[in-house]
């Protein structure tokens, strides 16, 4: 049995962890966020009423849906559907070439299901990696990191984080992996999420404007399976626009994207009950390396930089790396 540290508890990292754990290895995942899931993220909100708060509702602020082409991933999706955390999103307004699936009652339900049975240390940003005779030791500058972190030694370390976050940790230990990841540029995305306390008339459930420089995707969140009220709208900006406006404050982003959405669709929005914005600094790779995973001795990489930014690509990269590592002596 080998001991593995996986840095990044998103879809790719957890897919890798499950394969390794099922093969009998000891696996610990570390993530800087408050919970696992990465860009399969949802935001939970309520707003005040005269006599209390509305029932909680959620926004999918990262991945909006997923498709499945790989046989192994299709099998995994079928299992998630049987477990009740995924449903098909049928859309009468578009003739879909592929089945679109969403997590229910939110996209993060999928990664929460994946997290079950895994040892995940959250709120723990790994700041350095140290090679010692007995293995790899990880350290963190995060005050919330467990005190036992410095006493743990791992045989192998897997990086399942965006390449700009992996490179600083890898640069002192693997020029091979560092040089490969330096070829991958990660693109940003601003997401605006809005809730309304009255009917939101939309002429379609979602759209991906083909020739718009500002908005790449919008959807009526309440139209997804398992969502319900209140009416909600998600707007995601293009990578180019997000890069240009990367450091602007969220309030400015909200105003600009809402105004552009109304001009683009010709639809006026009702009074807004709640609005917010989330910046994904590393949303997807401009061009992935086109490999399942990367490996240099006891260090490995999986995720977006390898296969691409689709949900399926992240899962396949981690799953296949886990299969490879679980067969190594």
Automatic annotation (TrEMBL):
A Pfam family it matches: NAD_binding_8
InterPro entries the record matches: Amino_oxidase (IPR002937), FAD/NAD-bd_sf (IPR036188)
Listed transmembrane segments: none
Top-level taxon in the UniProt lineage: Bacteria
Entry's Gene Ontology molecular function annotations: oxidoreductase activity
Start and end residues of each Amine oxidase domain: 106-320
Protein name: Amine oxidase domain-containing protein
Native source species: Terasakiispira papahanaumokuakeensis
Taxonomic lineage of the native organism: Bacteria, Pseudomonadati, Pseudomonadota, Gammaproteobacteria, Oceanospirillales
